[in-house]
Design brief:
166 residues; 2 helices; flat; mainly beta; 5-stranded mixed β-sheet
Length: 166
Amino acid sequence: AGWGYMMLTNFLPNSGNGTFEIHAVVTDFAGKTTTLGTKTIHCDNANAVKPFGAIDTPTQGGTASGSSFINWGWVLTPPPNHIATDGSTINVYVDGVNLGHPNYNIYRSDIAALFPGYANSNGAVGYFYLDTTAYANGVHTIQWTARDSGGNSDGIGSRYFSISNT
């Protein structure tokens, strides 16, 4: 079994600028804790220029099914740049194949509140209809990439998920 974690580093002390030590700690049913590992990271959010965001569905290791599974995610980029509101600079990939662009520019209150002043903060959410019946049942990957008005690009998220159609 595996696990993953997405961290919005702007919520770390000093708005996520500096060096931080991250600990992976597990607690069993008896309350005993064990440290799995420690990693030192350096964050420089003050000078960040690349788009960022997350894939919300399917969840990491989750299951998708049907001809119209809705793949949700969100994308922002640091000012002064913006993401095209028609979603044309966001790409959705399944198993490494580009399927197209999500419908983009949908409001979500938590993102708008967390990132005031970003050009797309009032429309950072997008969705893509995924026909899972076009794929074999089993484990697949999904990824979003984005490019902003300044030409900066990055992966927004990538994860494994399972397709299960009957």
